[in-house]
C-alpha cells in the first residue's frame, strides 16, 4: 500500500450565516456549523430541506447567496469568493453512483488522478490501493454493470478517496441499496473514515445511518440548524 491513499488529513470546515436562495425561495436561512478536522458530521432532515444544497455549497458546485465557508483558515466561499471544486481537495459519493458505464472499474477510479496529471504507473498503484480499501481488490478490469449495486457504490467510494481528499461528501449514498447491503456498507464506510482520518459530511434521511457514522448529527429544518447532537 502506498502512503498516498492513506495520507489524507482532514480539513476543518466552518459555515457562518450561510444563505442560499433560488429566486424567491429561501432554502438555507443562516446556517452556522463547525465540522472539526477528521470528524464525521451527518446532516439529517426531510426531503426538500436543503441537505443537497448544503453539500453543493461545500463542494463548490454552487456559490452561496450569503455567508461564508472556511476550510481551515481559508475562505473558500462567500458572496464574493467561490473556489472551484478542484481547488477544494474533495471526494464525493452520490446516491446513484455516477459511474461511467463505458469505462472499466479501474478507469473510473483512476479518473480523478488522470485529471491531476498523475503518471500511469503511480495511478495504477493508487487505484489498486483504493480498490482494496473498499473491498474490491482484483475487480479493476470489470465494467461497472458487471457488479452489484453495493459493489458499484464501493467503486464510487474508491474513486472518492483515491486522490487522498481532505473532505469527503456523501449524498444519501446507501438509499438505493437493500437493507443488508446498506448495513454492511455503512459499517465499512465508518471503518474507512476512521482509518483515513478524512473529514466527512454525510447526508442521509436515515437516523440509524447517522448514528452509526457520525461524531455530530445536525438536523436541518426550515433552512436552519434545528438541532445539533454531539456524540
Ligand atoms: N438549482 C435550483 N433551483 C431552484 N430550486 C432549487 C435548486 N436546487 C434546489 N432547489 C430547491 O431547494 C429545496 C431544497 O432542495 P435540496 O437541497 O435538494 O433538498 P434535500 O436534498 O434536503 O432533499 C427544494 O425545494 C428544491 O426544489
Ligand atoms: Mg437531496
UniProtKB/TrEMBL annotation:
<protein>
    <submittedName>
        <fullName>ABC transporter substrate-binding protein</fullName>
    </submittedName>
</protein>
<keyword id="KW-0406">Ion transport</keyword>
<keyword id="KW-1003">Cell membrane</keyword>
<keyword id="KW-0410">Iron transport</keyword>
<dbReference type="InterPro" id="IPR050093">
    <property type="entry name" value="ABC_SmlMolc_Importer"/>
</dbReference>
<dbReference type="GO" id="GO:0016020">
    <property type="term" value="C:membrane"/>
</dbReference>
<dbReference type="GO" id="GO:0015697">
    <property type="term" value="P:quaternary ammonium group transport"/>
</dbReference>
<dbReference type="InterPro" id="IPR027417">
    <property type="entry name" value="P-loop_NTPase"/>
</dbReference>
<dbReference type="InterPro" id="IPR017871">
    <property type="entry name" value="ABC_transporter-like_CS"/>
</dbReference>
<keyword id="KW-0408">Iron</keyword>
<keyword id="KW-0067">ATP-binding</keyword>
<dbReference type="GO" id="GO:0016887">
    <property type="term" value="F:ATP hydrolysis activity"/>
</dbReference>
<keyword id="KW-0472">Membrane</keyword>
<feature type="domain" description="ABC transporter">
    <location>
        <begin position="13"/>
        <end position="229"/>
    </location>
</feature>
<dbReference type="Pfam" id="PF00005">
    <property type="entry name" value="ABC_tran"/>
</dbReference>
<keyword id="KW-0547">Nucleotide-binding</keyword>
<dbReference type="InterPro" id="IPR003439">
    <property type="entry name" value="ABC_transporter-like_ATP-bd"/>
</dbReference>
<keyword id="KW-0813">Transport</keyword>
<dbReference type="InterPro" id="IPR015853">
    <property type="entry name" value="ABC_transpr_FbpC"/>
</dbReference>
<dbReference type="GO" id="GO:0015408">
    <property type="term" value="F:ABC-type ferric iron transporter activity"/>
</dbReference>
<keyword id="KW-0997">Cell inner membrane</keyword>
<dbReference type="InterPro" id="IPR003593">
    <property type="entry name" value="AAA+_ATPase"/>
</dbReference>
<dbReference type="GO" id="GO:0005524">
    <property type="term" value="F:ATP binding"/>
</dbReference>
Amino acid at each position: 500500500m502506498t502512503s498516498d491513499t492513506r495520507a489524507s488529513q482532514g480539513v476543518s470546515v466552518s459555515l457562518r450565516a450561510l444563505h442560499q436562495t433560488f429566486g424567491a425561495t429561501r432554502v438555507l436561512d443562516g446556517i452556522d456549523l463547525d465540522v472539526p478536522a477528521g470528524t464525521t458530521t451527518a446532516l439529517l432532515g426531510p426531503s426538500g430541506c436543503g441537505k443537497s444544497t448544503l453539500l453543493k455549497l461545500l463542494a463548490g458546485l454552487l456559490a452561496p447567496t450569503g455567508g461564508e465557508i472556511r476550510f481551515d483558515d481559508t475562505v473558500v466561499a462567500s458572496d464574493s469568493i467561490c473556489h472551484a471544486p478542484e481547488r477544494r481537495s474533495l471526494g464525493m459519493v452520490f446516491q446513484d453512483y455516477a459511474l461511467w458505464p463505458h469505462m472499466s472499474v479501474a478507469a473510473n477510479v483512476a479518473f480523478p488522478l488522470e485529471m491531476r496529471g498523475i503518471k500511469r504507473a503511480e495511478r495504477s498503484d493508487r487505484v489498486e490501493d483504493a480498490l482494496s480499501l473498499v473491498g474490491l481488490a482484483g475487480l479493476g478490469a470489470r465494467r461497472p454493470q458487471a457488479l452489484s449495486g453495493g459493489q458499484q457504490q464501493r467503486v464510487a467510494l474508491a474513486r472518492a478517496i483515491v486522490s487522498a481528499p481532505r473532505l469527503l461528501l456523501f449524498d444519501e449514498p446507501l438509499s438505493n441499496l437493500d437493507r443488508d447491503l446498506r448495513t454492511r456498507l455503512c459499517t465499512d464506510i465508518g471503518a474507512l473514515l476512521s482509518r483515513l482520518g478524512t473529514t466527512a459530511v454525510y447526508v442521509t434521511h436515515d437516523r440509524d445511518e447517522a448514528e452509526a457514522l457520525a461524531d455530530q448529527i445536525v438536523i436541518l429544518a426550515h433552512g436552519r440548524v434545528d438541532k445539533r447532537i454531539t456524540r
